[in-house]
Amino acid sequence: MCKALLIVDVQNDFTEGGALAVSGGDSVAERLSAYLQSAAEEYSLIIGSRDWHDPDSDNGGHFAGPEYSISQPDFVDSWPVHCVAGSVGADYDPLLDTSFLHEHIFKGFGKPAYSMFEGATETGLTTVELLREAGITTVDVAGIATDYCVLASALDALQAGFKVRILADLIAGVAEESSAAALKTLAESGAEIIYL
Ligand SMILES: [Zn+2]
Asked: Which CATH number belongs to the domain containing residue 49 in this structure?
């Protein structure tokens, strides 16, 4: 089996109660854990990513707030402070059973990084390197947020030549309209949208 599961940014700051909470985030974490219980063995590689920003800068205009050059987030390019490296907000949501994850990608050190493919493991391996090393041909993508980091990660997976399936029951988006647009873009770009 040459299939990988990419779990994008299921972190406290992106689920209910977080700094940049996405409605339905907790539910995604819960349903992902149930899915892993039943389906983990279908995957030869399961990778989780975490947004992981510097505490002492605006991370390239990604953070907005009174102390930064952008005071108010536009929720397109600038955001409330979130997922600061090492903070509780940057941890995986505890509803996600991380015992199934084989690899962990960190992204966003000092800059915006929506795609898991922009990050690396603690030892410096990129997502593409992990996938190629494992002989992966197909990736399933789940996580948060549909309209940003799931979209960017899945587009990069397609760009890198993988067959991509979006697990549409296991994603949550910032906004309904942009999430629908993201799924449309992904389908038009060659991703398969799967409902379990
Ligand atoms: Zn971020």
From this structure: 3.40.50.850
